[in-house]
Write a structure and sequence with these properties.
alpha/beta, Rossmann fold, six-stranded mixed beta sheet, binds adenosine-5'-triphosphate, binds magnesium ion
Amino acid sequence: MLEVKHVSRIFKSGDFKVAAVNDVTFKVPDGQFVSIVGRSGSGKTTLLSLLGALDKPNEGSITIDNEDIARLNDHNLIKYRCQKIGFVFQSYNLVPNLTAIENVTLPMEFAGLPANVRKARAKELLTQVGLQLHEMERKPGRLSGGQQQRVAIARALANKPKLILADEPTGNLDSETGKVIFDLLHDLAKTEHTTIIVVTHDVEIAGKTDRQFRLKDGKLEGKE
Ligand SMILES: Nc1ncnc2c1ncn2[C@@H]1O[C@H](COP(=O)(O)OP(=O)(O)OP(=O)(O)O)[C@@H](O)[C@H]1O
Ligand SMILES: [Mg+2]
């Protein structure tokens, strides 16, 4: 269970304050597939970063299985991010000098999996997201935006996280490929009981998730 209680994230520069996330409260049970929609600047990425413990709230608490992630020490924070969270960034954040396969094996290396297991799983995941074998050996600079996005999705799934946070995971994909990715995430939520939270502008995708959240100026509007 993910529980978010009265969470705010305020950015200050000089006298100017932006409440990017403003007193947000919600609960998500394990295995639920949630979409977050909202206009540009409404706080979607900021909220995902807080859930992924990449940033800390000014106020409120975020608990996963009764553990408050804002209170983890650095060591446990790294462990939490590595083992429990799969994060798909809006800008992919792939390592430029590693091939697609190496990008996907990297988190498994941090988790201590043996090399042959890492490579086999990376290939399997990249195949699932629709990459060809010869594309897997390329570095991100030689892949299209949509291909890089799919590598980022495969990387997020590498350590079988409990919680997947994805910022516009289908934003650069044609509708057919987007549907394949959506189905993959949907299957994970149902079979592995993985909680999935996706930010999307795609109304069709948002309409098919278990729940839809709408952010407006940092506030949560529709919760169901
Ligand atoms: N590091 C920061 N410093 C100051 N302001 C920030 C920072 N990050 C985000 N903001 C502001 O917080 C608000 C929410 O930004 P956020 O990136 O969460 O929006 P978003 O909903 O993800 O938008 P988009 O759909 O364009 O990706 C915006 O007004 C933005 O300018
Ligand atoms: Mg964003």
